[in-house]
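hi support,

uploading two proteins for the ticket. first:
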Amino acid sequence: MVGPSLTVAQDAGLAREQFAQGEHDAAAAAWEARLEVNPFDPADLNNLAVAKAARGDYQAARELLQRAVRLAPGREDIAANLARLTDWMDRQRDGIAPPGAHPALQQPGARVVPPEPPAPWPRRAAVGGRG
């Protein structure tokens, strides 16, 4: 059984490369194959969740992260991923701007949250005595 586990280990490296290159579908397929061998691996569940979130399948990603947290409650990185994704999903659902956003974006109904604007330019000295 050394052969299959070597292939599975190689698949992990390939999946990471694919994900880094933006090939999220291929990376997800590789992590799914790894989970067929060991469905209780919290790292693979986490990695598959990240790939699914990158593809826009946020609900599946959250379910995978919840399972990973149950399997490895001491893994702070996985718990943090679950907390960030859940917070983001809740904010999208409720139309809530992130903390520190411009007050106009925090009003009810402000559903699209653009990035914060750049700081204002310093005022120039008035020309001709007007100001």
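and the second one:
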Amino acid sequence: MSINRVTICGRLTRDPEMRSTAGGLAVMGLGVAVNDRRRNQQTGEWEDVPNYVDCTMFGPYAQAMERRLSKGAKVAIDGRLRWSQWERDGQRRSKLEVVVEGIELMGGGSAAEAPRQQPQPAPAPIGPAPVLSASVYDDEIPF
């Protein structure tokens, strides 16, 4: 048995790139940067090191999401890994990518695109919990 499942959260490195197959199936390409925290050996400080992941979406869902996605958007992606290889100019090439089966916008884009939220007042304090006596409970409840 093997399990091919990937879940990543990160930011889009570029605007989505739409194309279509010869059969008319929509194909959207995405780049996602996922940070990895590592300790710098020289300074001892923690730093974020980006991993760049190529992702591909197919079909009408890709077309619908294209209008909502843009560079810098924070997303959560669920999908599976796919390895492909080809030859270009006599050189063999290969690529590991995520085939997106689900994507969710996480918010937290740039400050220019994020609407400012007004601070909410603190909820009014609730009084002490009422003291319940044994007579409140019905002995005839069947469970």
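thanks. also noticed: The mean pLDDT is 82.
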